[in-house]
Design brief:
This protein has one helix and no strands. The protein has about 50 residues and is an all-alpha fold.
């Protein structure tokens, strides 16, 4: 196997994995309804 073929397999595998993750996120995106925040979240002061 040449170095170019290894990079091709690596990039192809990485592209396929990215597509699978994006497809899962797209399909799973609407299952949980968005709810308003009921309790305010305290924001820490920035250190001076």
């Amino acid at each position: 196997m040449t170095v170019g073929m290894r990079w091709g397999w690596l990039l192809g595998s990485l592209a396929a994995l990215t597509i699978v993750v994006l497809a899962y996120a797209w399909i799973d995106g609407g299952r949980e309804p968005v709810r308003p925040i009921a309790v305010p979240v305290p924001v820490p002061e920035i250190a001076r």
